[in-house]
Amino acid sequence: MRVNPILDWNYEDVWAFLLHFKTPYCALYDAGYTSVGHRDNTLPNSALRKEDGCYSPAYMLKDGTLERHGRK
Prior knowledge:
By secondary structure, the chain is mostly loops. About 15% of the residues lie in helices and about 0% in strands. The chain is built from 1 helix and no strands. It is globular, with a radius of gyration of 12 Å.
């Protein structure tokens, strides 16, 4: 699902909406992915990597400008 481009929402706004209204979303976002493309060019976002090697969910990303850091 894409947010209508007429809305001037940033990364944090989208996640606030999704979480507030309990909107279903792809489970990959809970595994640390912030930008999902093709399986050949998408990795978990390194900005969400924890010390134990696991990843925080996408909505925990502090800096929305890092959204694409999981893409090659």
